[in-house]
Amino acid sequence: MAYDKDIWLLGRAIGVILVAIVSGLVAAQWKHEAVPFVAFAIILLLAVVKSRWIVLDFMGLRGVRPRLAIALLAWPAFFVIVAAARTALATFGIAG
To answer: CA of 78: how far to CAs of 4, 12, 83, in Å?
Structure first.
């Protein structure tokens, strides 16, 4: 059964890599304009998903130490929220 799980994780990893490549290409097309919110949101979402996979699967914290896993997942989520807020404020001209 472990073999099936490895194939499933590999397939999901390949899917995330493809989405990351497409969103990176979309973001690269806007050199002199602001990156569209959809592409930026996809990039930020991928950061959170990747950190979740690392914490739960690679570090082996799935169901073992839930409080530590939540704390480790809150750290990148905090930075994603800060980056999104900063971008929204800069786009709408409220700050810098």
So the answer is: 33, 24, 9
Tens digit of pLDDT at every position of the chain (96 positions): 455 666 666 777 778 777 777 777 776 676 655 566 777 787 788 888 888 888 877 788 888 888 888 888 898 889 888 888 887 787 777 655
Q: What is the 3-state secondary structure (H, E, C) of the chain?
A: CHHHHHHHHHHHHHHHHHHHHHHHHHHHHCCCCCCCHHHHHHHHHHHHHHHHHHHHHHCCCCCCCHHHHHHHHHHHHHHHHHHHHHHHHHHCCCCC
What type of residue sits at position 24?
G
